């Protein structure tokens, strides 16, 4: 079978690497891919949002399964377009993808399904949001742009003035473009975040081991939000009993509510959770594999990923054997370009990749890279996801950072504290 993976980040590199291991797969294509996917698969020069060209490529090349990585093509209806052409694709429909594409839709869905989440209000313009903030007590809130903003449209505010400034950035100066056409203002929750990803066919749910992401740019969870500076799995924060509660109180009601809303959900249901003193709360939903959470999960998955994805597409998850996982923890450290999540330079040569590849139980997943004149160079803000396995979380962290130290380019940086929460530092 031929498989097409849509996207060009670290998530897609890890999916290409894992899918390529399936004995049922003959060829793997990645559109547009990066320098790393070029070594695991065949890159195709088609942007991940070019729906007509992707559909045409899948038809011409008799692609047996298309796996859509990023949220933007899902929100644009790529899965629907492939289905209309008689092609099989893993991921939610455009209507179901609104669970991530619209935070207003998501929060209203959570409310209707009685799923625990932060108290919130939604606004269609900046003036009404500012009026609301001026009338309420000066409290800590989170201001969110409604639409897709590459993980950066969420602003955590310490006081009213910061919240007013956030509204101005989103709705006034349109820092996140059309994503800011509506806003959500919600109470700021205190606790630890966890990510729980599940595969569903709209009826059956297969829950993966919990992971923990690191959104803020700098050590100690300081600085602006990013697309994610690292992740690890499993996390001791999510015990077996808590995972069962998440399935019962979050995942199952969500699948039922989406079905009732006539938006049946198939694909990855990714719950971003906050574990507070008051209990479990849903921060948001994503409708695809997280990046960088996908990398440690793919490192630990021992089952054939293609079997899992096809069972979701075909509505046969109830017939799938239980997934097998490597019991060892995995830690992914994101290496980023100087300036990220703000402006950064591209095209800087990366050194030390071959040396890093010699570190045992480590895989360097490429994200923002490309090949220029035979040399791997930077091509994004988040450049690499260096992922290590170990007999403990501390050992996995050591492997990942041992490889990180071998890789260099001008201005390269990373957080130094990925997985410290699990280690107890």
From TrEMBL:
> Needs which cofactor?
Mn(2+); Mg(2+)
* Keywords carried by this UniProt record: ATP-binding, Ligase, Manganese, Metal-binding, Nucleotide-binding, Purine biosynthesis
Which GO terms are recorded in the biological process aspect for this UniProt protein?
'de novo' IMP biosynthetic process; purine nucleobase biosynthetic process
Q: Which Pfam families match?
A: GARS_A, GARS_C, GARS_N
Pathway in which this enzyme or protein is active: Purine metabolism; IMP biosynthesis via de novo pathway; N(1)-(5-phospho-D-ribosyl)glycinamide from 5-phospho-alpha-D-ribose 1-diphosphate: step 2/2
EC number in record: 6.3.4.13
Q: Which residues cross the membrane?
A: none
From the UniProt record, list the coiled-coil ranges: none
Q: Does the keyword Oxidoreductase apply?
A: no
GO MF annotation terms:
ATP binding; metal ion binding; phosphoribosylamine-glycine ligase activity
Q: Please list the reactions this protein catalyses.
A: 5-phospho-beta-D-ribosylamine + glycine + ATP = N(1)-(5-phospho-beta-D-ribosyl)glycinamide + ADP + phosphate + H(+)
Q: Which InterPro entries match?
A: ATP-grasp (IPR011761), ATP_grasp_subdomain_1 (IPR013815), PreATP-grasp_dom_sf (IPR016185), PRibGlycinamid_synth_ATP-grasp (IPR020561), PRibGlycinamide_synth (IPR000115), PRibGlycinamide_synth_C-dom (IPR020560), PRibGlycinamide_synth_C_sf (IPR037123), PRibGlycinamide_synth_CS (IPR020559)
Domain of life, per lineage:
Bacteria
Query: What SMART domains does the database record attribute to this sequence?
Result: GARS_A (SM01209), GARS_C (SM01210)
Q: The ATP-grasp domain covers which part of the protein?
A: 107-314
Give the protein name, as stated in the record.
Phosphoribosylamine--glycine ligase
The species is: Adhaeretor mobilis
């Amino acid at each position: 079978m031929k498989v097409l993976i849509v996207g060009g980040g670290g998530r897609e590199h890890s999916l290409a690497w894992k899918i390529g291991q399936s004995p049922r797969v003959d060829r793997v294509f990645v559109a547009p891919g990066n320098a790393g996917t070029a070594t695991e698969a065949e890159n195709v020069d088609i942007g991940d949002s070019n729906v007509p060209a992707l559909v045409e490529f899948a038809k011409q090349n008799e692609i047996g399964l298309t796996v859509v990585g990023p949220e933007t093509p899902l929100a644009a209806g790529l899965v629907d377009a492939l289905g209309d052409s008689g092609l099989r694709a893993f991921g939610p429909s455009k209507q179901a993808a609104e669970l991530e594409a619209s935070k207003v839709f998501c929060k209203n869905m959570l409310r209707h399904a009685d799923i625990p989440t932060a108290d919130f209000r939604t606004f269609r313009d900046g003036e009404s949001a500012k009026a609301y903030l001026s009338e309420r007590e000066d409290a800590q809130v989170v201001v969110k742009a409604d639409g897709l903003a590459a993980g950066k449209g969420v602003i955590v505010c310490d006081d009213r003035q910061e919240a007013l400034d956030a509204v101005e950035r989103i709705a006034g100066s349109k820092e996140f473009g059309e994503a800011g056409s509506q806003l959500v203002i919600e109470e700021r929750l205190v606790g630890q975040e966890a990510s729980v990803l599940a595969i569903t066919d709209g009826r059956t749910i297969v829950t993966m081991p919990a992971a923990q992401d690191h959104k803020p740019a700098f050590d100690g969870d300081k600085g602006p939000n990013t697309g994610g500076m690292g992740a690890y799995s499993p996390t001791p924060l999510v015990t077996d009993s808590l995972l069962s509660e998440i399935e019962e109180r979050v995942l199952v009601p969500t699948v039922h509510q989406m079905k009732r809303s006539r938006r049946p959900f198939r694909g990855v249901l990714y719950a971003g959770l906050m574990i507070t003193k008051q209990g479990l709360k849903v921060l948001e939903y994503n409708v695809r594999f997280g990046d960088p959470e996908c990398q440690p999960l793919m490192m630990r998955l021992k089952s054939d990923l293609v079997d899992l994805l096809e069972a979701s597409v075909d509505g046969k998850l109830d017939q799938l054997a239980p997934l097998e996982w490597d019991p060892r923890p995995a830690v992914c450290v994101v290496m980023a370009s100087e300036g990220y999540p703000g402006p950064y330079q591209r095209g800087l040569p990366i050194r030390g990749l071959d040396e890093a590849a010699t570190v045992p139980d480590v895989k360097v997943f490429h994200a923002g890279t490309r090949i220029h004149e035979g040399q791997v160079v930077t091509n994004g803000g988040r450049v690499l996801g260096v992922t290590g396995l170990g007999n403990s979380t501390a050992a996995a962290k050591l492997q990942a950072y041992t490889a990180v130290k071998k890789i260099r380019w001008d201005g390269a940086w990373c957080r130094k504290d990925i997985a410290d929460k699990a280690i107890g530092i």
